[in-house]
Amino acid sequence: MVVSRLRGALSAGVAHPDPELSPVRAGRTRQPWPELAPSHALDAGVPLAVVLRQGVRTALHRSLANGFYLPVRAALAGDGPLPVCWYGQQDASWIAYYDVLRRLGLAGYRPDDADHLGIWVDLARSCGWWWPGEDVCVVVERPREIHVEPVTGTAHDRVRLRPRGVRYRDGWQPRLSG
Q1: Where are the domains positioned within the chain?
Q2: What is the pTM of this model?
Q3: Burial readout 147-166 (b: 16 or more C-beta within 10 A, e: otherwise)
Q4: Which of 10, 56, 85, 173 has the fewest CB atoms below 10 angstroms from its CB?
């Protein structure tokens, strides 16, 4: 709930209409904005807010989800359960989006919310996944190596994880399907 409240507060501080709240074009067609490379999108009249959302939040989410954390999470789970509540570098998509808006002066957050965002920025940059508990928080260090390959035909240089593309400092590599 803390993360949900923070994201709501950050969204409220965005100076332009958040594309998440109105993701389709106004007018007769009401079609979603095209996903183009940023320079082409701006030339085609796509609003900067949409370009930033597509090029930062959406692109990072797709690359991190399909290219890293879903395959690694599946490999870790095997046949057993995993913690429901886990955080870490896979949160970089929303963290980077709100951080970029703040750095560009396109959002103004309350001091407590800006400080809270700063903590998430530091966490995403400095550790891997983490699971909070009542009395203990388990933190995994970042992988030593991540090898990805581009997904051809994508507007925002999406990547996917190569098979055996993750190695941790202790030498462990999750078995990922190719």
Answers
A1: 2-81+90-126
A2: 0.76
A3: eeeeeeeebbebbbbeeebb
A4: 85
